[in-house]
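for the recovery benchmark. tokens below, seq after
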């Protein structure tokens, strides 16, 4: 499987308008691969991406229920909330980035370098798997002076507590400057025609109905930090 990211002829406004003119050329994907631990809740999730010369635009639309978000600080564990995530490896073997944003727009952003994919056994804030290989990936928190450059739109309030128990649609749309990637992996060069690797996720670890789903299929392990399962994303000429 793979995904083609088209170049935007107009700049998205970052106002959460799914059918806005700049987005009409974007290919839409559905996140349909639920991990086996997702027994009680199966929301419908769509995502799409565009790029311009200076960066990448990502848009998630979630048809959800039992929505909750309480994490409000940069680099807080937003995966415990109703959350959408984009993991991307711009350069093979040079590490990947995890953009995790909860329904209230709070961001966690790490550059995950170190060992190759098979050795990645945990995520920030989780206890390492003692039965796994001894080498660990290096989880590097991206500093605020870079993280704040990610421009984020979110349709729900920053805090949603208690949960929204009825059917709810929520959206997260954001812009990632290419300079964030270049800070860690060096110059990206000419973007059109490049092939990166990535995956799109949705989770809700500590809501009343936890679930985990992906775009590119994964194994049985409930761990998004397994880049061997990333799929190609190609920037159209």
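predicted aa per position
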């Amino acid at each position: 499987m793979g995904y083609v990211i088209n170049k935007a002829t107009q700049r998205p406004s970052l106002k959460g308008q799914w059918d806005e003119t700049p987005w009409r050329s974007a290919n839409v994907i559905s996140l349909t691969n639920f991990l086996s631990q997702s027994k009680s809740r199966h929301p419908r999730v769509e995502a799409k991406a565009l790029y311009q010369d200076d960066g990448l635009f990502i848009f998630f639309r979630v048809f959800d229920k039992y929505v909750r978000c309480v994490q409000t600080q940069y680099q807080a564990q937003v995966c415990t909330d109703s959350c959408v995530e984009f993991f991307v490896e711009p350069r093979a073997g040079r590490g990947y980035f995890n953009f995790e944003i909860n329904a209230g727009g709070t961001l966690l952003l790490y550059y995950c370098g170190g060992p190759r994919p098979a050795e990645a056994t945990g995520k920030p804030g989780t206890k390492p798997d003692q039965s796994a290989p001894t080498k660990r990936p290096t989880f590097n928190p991206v500093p605020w002076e870079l993280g704040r450059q990610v421009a984020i739109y979110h349709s729900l309030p920053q805090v949603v507590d208690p949960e929204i128990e009825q059917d709810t649609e929520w959206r997260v749309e954001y812009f990632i400057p290419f300079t964030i990637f270049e800070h860690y992996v060096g110059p990206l060069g000419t973007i059109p025609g490049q092939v990166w690797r990535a995956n799109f996720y949705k989770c809700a670890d500590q809501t009343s109905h936890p679930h985990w789903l992906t775009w590119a299929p994964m194994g049985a392990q409930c761990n998004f930090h397994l880049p061997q399962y990333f799929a190609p994303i190609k920037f159209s000429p």
